[in-house]
Write a structure and sequence with these properties.
Layout lengths: L1 E6 L7 H17 L4 H11 L3 H6 L5 H6 L15 H7 L7 H22 L1 H22 L11 H14 L4 E6 L2 E9 H11 L11 H21 L9
Antiparallel strand pairs: 1-2, 2-3
Helix pairs in contact: 1-6, 1-7, 6-7, 6-8, 7-8, 7-10, 8-9, 8-10
Length: about 240
C-alpha cells in the first residue's frame, strides 16, 4: 500500500519540512558522488557505521575488506568524525529511489508534525529521532561494517508521531498494480500496517528495518508525552 496524500490541512506555514526536503535533495545532487565506487568510498568516510560507534574508532582497510569488526589497526579515514556521522547519515541516500521514497513520506506526514510542534522543536525532533533510530540499528547490529544511510529512521519517527496525533486523518493510497483505484483509509490503519510490515523485511535486502522500528517508537512516545502534557503548539481535539 502506497500513500498518495493525506486529507489533513495545516494551519501554519511548514517551511522547515520543505527546508529539510530541499537540503536532503541538495546533499544527494551536490555532495554525494555519482559513481558507485566513489560513493562507496564517500560513505565509508562520512556515514554512520555500527562497528565504528561500538569501538569509537574508524574502520581499518582489513575491517572494510573482510567485513570484520575489531580494535586497533590503521584506520582508512583517521580523521572521520564518528559521532557527527550519526547526524550526517540522515541526509545521505543510496540511490534515487531511496531518496524519492523517503522524501515522499516526509512530504505527506511531516508538515502536520511541524504544525503541532512548531518550527524549531520540529527540527530538533527530526534530527534527534534520526540519531536515536540509527542507534537502535547499531544496538542490534553492533559489529556491522556496512554504512547506514538514509532519512527513513527520522521519517519513521514523524510517522509514529502522526499515529498518536492524527490517527483519524484520512490517507489516500493505492495498491500496485492497481494504480488507478485510489482509496482512503484512516491514518492509524495505514501507519500500523506500515509498522508491522517492517518486521517482515528480508534482512538480505540491506534495509535497516531496526532503525525504522526504533524511530517509529521514539516518535510515538514523544508525541504521546507532549500531548499528555498539553505542550503542543496547537491542541488537537480528542
Amino acid at each position: 500500500m502506497l500513500p498518495i496524500r493525506d486529507d489533513n490541512p495545516t494551519v501554519r506555514s511548514t517551511v522547515l519540512n520543505w527546508a529539510i526536503i530541499a537540503v536532503t535533495v541538495a546533499v544527494y545532487l551536490l555532495v554525494q558522488p555519482r559513481s558507485e565506487g566513489e560513493l562507496a568510498s564517500f560513505l565509508y568516510a562520512e556515514a554512520t557505521i555500527p562497528c565504528e560507534v561500538l569501538t569509537a574508532e574508524p574502520l581499518s582497510i582489513p575491517e572494510i575488506e573482510q567485513g570484520t569488526c575489531g580494535r586497533g589497526g590503521d584506520p582508512l579515514f583517521a580523521e572521520k568524525p564518528i559521532w557527527w556521522s550519526l547526524v550526517a547519515s540522515i541526509f545521505f541516500h543510496g540511490g534515487l529511489f531511496h531518496l524519492v521514497g523517503n522524501l515522499w513520506m516526509l512530504w505527506i506526514f511531516g508538515n502536520n508534525i511541524e504544525d503541532e510542534l512548531g518550527h524549531v522543536r520540529y527540527l530538533v525532533f527530526y534530527l534527534v529521532s534520526g540519531v536515536l533510530a540509527s542507534l537502535a540499528h547499531v544496538a542490534l547490529n553492533p559489529r556491522s561494517t556496512i554504512p547506514l544511510v538514509g532519512a527513513s529512521g527520522a521519517i519513521a519517527a514523524v510517522m509514529g508521531a502522526y499515529l498518536v496525533l492524527h490517527p483519524r486523518a484520512r490517507v489516500t493510497s493505492i495498491i500496485p498494480p492497481l494504480f488507478f483505484l485510489p482509496f482512503r483509509v484512516p491514518a492509524a490503519v495505514f501507519l500500523v500496517l506500515w509498522f508491522v510490515g517492517q518486521f517482515a523485511i528480508d534482512t538480505s535486502t540491506g534495509v535497516a528495518w531496526e532503525a525504522h522500528v526504533g524511530g517509529f517508537a521514539v516518535g510515538a512516545a514523544y508525541a504521546w508525552r507532549l500531548r499528555r502534557a498539553g505542550r503542543l503548539e496547537r491542541q488537537i481535539p480528542t
